């Protein structure tokens, strides 16, 4: 009996442990008093859809929307990156003033510099002087804030040092760092800061900025880098030509073409070619800044909250890029995050799987133990029942209660054990005369009477019942009662006797056993539910894998097809060419490179939406003109490429080219408008003009430019003489790159004379190049090459600085007021910092703006009218003259002329040469009259005879220049020429 009681106690302890494991903690939800909603105005510097801006905005909204007393959020976008002008600023000011004149602003949040400057300038006027919380401002920007007061925020700490340390840890052989940033205000600031920090970290590293290269030049350069190099990319919005670049697309192409890892500064480069690094997160910056805003909305003062520094950096690498460059994850710095790892159910849900297995094992163990003890309890109960029967008559000598009823007088007798168990004294409850029945538990009395009656009436062989009796202490005890009635010969009752055994402990065990059964059933149900949940999660994983495959297919479609026209894109073209060459080594094909003539003019005058629709129509026209042998691609911009396969000779190629030219003579119907366009086509044949994709594309492109030079709207087939011409250009370009450093360039100055006073008005600066290797090279030869390879940017800046310094010194020496006229290239004008460059040179040389005149050709305005006009208008307002050179040889539209920000018309030499003809004389006189009527000065070029001078004086032309006055004079001889003219 002792051993069984010990086992039952152990069983009791195990059941208690199960109950404790099943307890679930239900956290109480804190209640907070609802605050009235407050208004937060979020000002973004850039446009919606720009990755950096969207990430900061998402971080701000996530934090504010989860804050107590959720504030109302208003978001506005300045679009400063695409429209950084005063007109945009004024429009944005009027918009904010009108929209929020009846809204009380409790806090202003800004992203990046332009929005912060706007908020500081105007919050007192139109934004209730609300506190400002900034985000996306670097350390230099914060230093330039001054002390505006009531402001705090998060510094965008640009620190490439950690990224470089990580790169060196991965590849200790790194010696060259190519740094990519654009020429925007923020791009130049970021690039300068990055280069300074890297230089201070390791002076031995060679740094190469790429901001002066076009997009294609950057791609070409990084694709040929050696393994001891890396590329470090900051932000990038436009290349050195001023052409806007989609960051995601450019970053992806750069990462794909680069021969070395491309590290980034910002994490929005992830999944777009970024190898990795210590990346700034716009999302984290937005969340941190919003956290400061919540503190201010809850009552803290902005000036009392320190500016947060270096809180938004994550060390992360792209698994796909690691695989591409053969870098093991184990080589990454400790604590690095890795994205895009292949999906592994075990790795992803390792903790959950192990927890479920452990829980399942524990539950199975508990179930086995419970089953063991259930069998044990059953066995114990069986033994107890047998024991009760076996010792029924032996209870007289034990602690069992013996009872007896004399049926003749109905007097009860109970042994001493009864009184000991219940605590009563004899006759205390009148037990002898049935008073003991009053001690039976109310719930058990009916059952006891029924069992007694059944036995007395002979329906049972003995009396058996279990019931509870109340002791003197008030506690009930369970008794197992047995008895048998004795009858006489006549069948009458004589005596009714039996025993009562205290079974309170056993009843307790049975109760606990019942509870154990219930708990076991509940545990089984929970295990079943857990299995169902695990199965559901597995089904979701399978579903997610299917969605991922669908998404990858969609992205592949986007990667290989042009979104606008639906045609295959440049990537598809490269693969198609490589596949054709691989599978058709002995076949023939032709590559047609098409460029729409004057498309940029159409875009600028009719709008980009109109231009996009035209590109779609062009793609449709090309498909109509083709057949099953021609495959069409949109190469980019207004350029299309056709792969004409399996042609049967040169004549068939020419016939198809004629079909294309004729096909474009049919007008295009767009938005109820009729548009006439032409296309220039360059043709390269396979295998005659190239045996690989790169060579074919290059030669077709060269032929296309020859078609442009031939007058547009035609086609040219590539020939070897074109390659020779191209090689000659490369020689000139190679020597031209060192011309400034070797002091091979010089300026000659051709005088301009005022016809009314016959006094010298000034000089036009003309560049000359004396190469030690090539001799004297005509400007007509090298200027166009300099523009094509963008060397015109440093050359043009050198010319402007040299000419301004010269005229300043000449005026100081001669006490004159001479002007200087300098020719400007379209490449210079397209630079974002052109205006700042001109004004900077004037400040550097000390020349007053009114003594400088910039000469622009009509064709320059057609390149990008709006962007160029705004820059020249700003210079004109400073007092700088703007001359329209070669007037009459270009478009010469009067309505167009009225829109140009010019001060002078220069009549082309071709009109002056032929004024002996009455028609040309009348035309020249009309040009002078038109210029004067429009309030412009008129200058005639190429005056070589007295008759030409006399005619121009009669027409009151304002200024003249030409060989009749003087040939261009070397700089060292100008001062003597001026003295001689004065004496003469």
UniProtKB/TrEMBL annotation:
Every EAL domain range: 729-982
Transmembrane regions: 352-374
Coiled coil, from the record: 510-544
Residues of the PAS domain: 387-459
InterPro entries for this protein: ABC_transpt-TYRBP-like, Biofilm_reg_signaling, EAL_dom, EAL_sf, GGDEF_dom, Nucleotide_cyclase, PAC, PAS
SUPFAM superfamilies in UniProt: EAL domain-like, Nucleotide cyclase, PYP-like sensor domain (PAS domain)
Keyword Signal: yes
Residues annotated as domain PAC: 463-515
Ranges for domain GGDEF: 587-720
Alphabetized Pfam families for the sequence: ABC_sub_bind (PF04392), EAL (PF00563), GGDEF (PF00990), PAS_3 (PF08447)
Signal peptide: 1-32
Record's keyword terms, sorted: Coiled coil, Membrane, Signal, Transmembrane, Transmembrane helix
UniProt keyword Cytoplasm present: no
PANTHER family given in the database record: BIOFILM ARCHITECTURE MAINTENANCE PROTEIN MBAA (PTHR44757:SF2), DIGUANYLATE CYCLASE DGCP (PTHR44757)
NCBIfam families named among the record's database cross-references: GGDEF, sensory_box
Name of the protein this chain belongs to: PAS domain S-box-containing protein/diguanylate cyclase (GGDEF) domain-containing protein
Organism: Paenibacillus typhae
């Amino acid at each position: 009996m002792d051993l069984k009681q010990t086992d039952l106690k152990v069983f009791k302890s195990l059941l208690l442990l199960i109950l404790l494991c099943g307890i679930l903690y239900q956290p109480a939800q804190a209640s907070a008093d609802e605050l009235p909603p407050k208004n937060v105005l979020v000002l973004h510097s850039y446009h919606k859809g720009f990755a950096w801006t969207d990430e900061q905005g998402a971080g701000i909204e996530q934090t504010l929307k989860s804050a107590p007393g959720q504030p109302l959020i208003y978001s506005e976008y300045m679009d400063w990156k695409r429209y950084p002008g005063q007109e945009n600023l004024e429009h944005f000011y009027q918009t904010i003033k009108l929209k929020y004149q009846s809204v009380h602003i409790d806090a202003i949040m800004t992203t990046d510099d332009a929005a912060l400057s706007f908020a500081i300038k105007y919050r007192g006027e139109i934004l209730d002087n609300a506190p400002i919380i900034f985000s996306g401002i670097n350390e230099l920007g914060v230093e330039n804030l001054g002390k505006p007061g009531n402001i705090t925020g998060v510094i965008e700490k640009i620190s490439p040092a950690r990224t470089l340390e990580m790169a060196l840890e991965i590849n200790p052989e790194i010696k060259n760092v190519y740094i990519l940033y654009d020429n925007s205000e923020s791009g130049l600031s970021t690039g300068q800061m990055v280069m300074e920090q890297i230089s201070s970290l390791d002076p031995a590293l060679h740094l190469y900025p790429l901001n002066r290269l076009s997009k294609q030049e950057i791609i070409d350069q990084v694709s040929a880098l050696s393994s001891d190099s890396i590329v470090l990319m900051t932000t990038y919005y436009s290349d050195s030509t001023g052409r806007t670049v989609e960051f995601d697309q450019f970053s992806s192409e750069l990462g794909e073409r680069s021969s070395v890892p491309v590290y980034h500064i910002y994490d929005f480069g992830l999944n777009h070619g970024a190898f990795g690094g210590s990346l700034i997160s716009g999302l984290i910056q937005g969340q941190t800044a919003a956290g400061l805003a919540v503190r201010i909305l809850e009552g803290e003062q902005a000036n009392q909250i320190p500016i947060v520094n270096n809180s938004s950096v994550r060390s992360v690498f792209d698994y796909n890029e690691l695989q591409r460059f053969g870098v093991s994850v184990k080589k990454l710095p400790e604590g690095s995050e890795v994205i895009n790892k292949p999906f592994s159910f075990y790795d992803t849900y390792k903790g959950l799987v192990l927890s479920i297995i452990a829980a399942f094992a524990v539950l199975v163990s508990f179930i086995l133990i419970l089953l063991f003890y259930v069998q044990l309890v059953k066995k114990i109960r069986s033994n107890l029942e047998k024991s009760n029967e076996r010792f029924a008559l032996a209870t007289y000598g034990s602690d069992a209660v013996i009872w007896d009823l004399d049926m003749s007088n109905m007097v009860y007798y109970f042994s001493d054990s009864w009184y000991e168990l219940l605590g009563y004294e004899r006759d205390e409850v009148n037990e002898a005369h049935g008073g003991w029945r009053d001690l039976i538990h109310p719930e058990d009395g009916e059952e006891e009477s029924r069992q007694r009656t059944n036995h007395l009436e002979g329906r049972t062989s003995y009396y058996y019942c279990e019931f509870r009796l109340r002791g003197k202490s008030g506690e009930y005890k369970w008794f197992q009662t047995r008895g048998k009635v004795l009858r006489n010969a006549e069948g009458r009752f004589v005596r009714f006797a039996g025993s009562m055994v205290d079974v309170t402990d056993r009843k307790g065990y049975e109760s606990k056993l019942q509870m154990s059964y219930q708990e076991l059933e509940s545990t089984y149900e929970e295990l079943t539910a857990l299995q169902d949940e695990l199965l559901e999660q597995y089904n979701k994983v399978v579903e997610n894998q299917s969605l991922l495959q669908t998404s990858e297919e969609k992205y592949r479609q986007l990667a290989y097809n042009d979104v606008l026209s639906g045609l295959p894109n440049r990537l598809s073209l490269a693969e198609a060419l490589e596949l054709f060459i691989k599978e058709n080594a002995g076949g023939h094909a032709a590559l047609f490179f098409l460029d729409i003539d004057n498309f940029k003019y159409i875009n600028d005058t009719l709008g980009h939406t109109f231009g996009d629709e035209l590109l779609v129509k062009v793609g449709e026209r090309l498909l109509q003109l083709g057949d099953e042998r021609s495959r069409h691609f949109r190469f980019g911009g207004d350029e299309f490429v056709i792969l004409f396969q399996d042609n049967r000779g040169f004549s068939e190629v020419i016939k198809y080219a004629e079909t294309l030219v004729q096909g474009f003579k049919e007008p295009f119907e767009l938005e109820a408008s009729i548009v006439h366009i032409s296309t220039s086509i360059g043709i390269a044949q396979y295998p005659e003009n190239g045996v690989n994709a790169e060579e074919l594309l290059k030669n077709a492109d060269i032929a296309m430019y020859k078609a442009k030079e031939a007058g547009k709207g035609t086609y040219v087939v590539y020939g070897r003489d074109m390659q020779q011409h191209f090689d000659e250009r490369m020689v000139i370009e190679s020597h031209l790159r060192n011309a400034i450093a070797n002091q091979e360039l010089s300026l000659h100055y051709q005088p301009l004379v005022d016809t009314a006073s016959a006094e010298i008005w000034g000089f036009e600066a003309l560049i000359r190049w004396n190469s030690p290797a090539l001799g004297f090279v005509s400007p007509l030869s090298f200027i166009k090459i300099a523009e094509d390879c963008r060397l015109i940017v440093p050359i043009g800046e050198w010319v402007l600085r040299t000419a301004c310094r010269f005229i300043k010194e000449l005026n100081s020496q001669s006490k004159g007021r001479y002007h200087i006229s300098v020719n400007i290239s379209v490449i210079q004008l397209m630079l974002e910092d052109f205006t700042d460059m001109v004004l900077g040179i004037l400040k550097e040389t000390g020349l007053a703006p009114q003594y400088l005149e910039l000469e622009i050709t009509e064709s320059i305005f057609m390149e990008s009218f709006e962007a160029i006009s705004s820059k020249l208008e700003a210079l004109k307002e400073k007092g700088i003259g703007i001359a329209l050179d070669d007037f009459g040889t270009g478009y010469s539209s009067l309505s167009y002329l009225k829109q140009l920000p010019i001060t002078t018309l220069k009549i082309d030499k071709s009109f002056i040469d032929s004024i002996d003809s009455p028609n040309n004389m009348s035309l020249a006189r009309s040009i002078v009259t038109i210029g004067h009527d429009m309030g412009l000065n008129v200058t005639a070029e190429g005056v070589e005879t007295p008759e030409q001078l006399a005619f121009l004086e009669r027409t009151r032309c304002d200024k003249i220049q030409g060989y009749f006055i003087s040939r261009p004079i070397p700089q060292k001889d100008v001062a003597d020429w001026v003295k001689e003219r004065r004496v003469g």
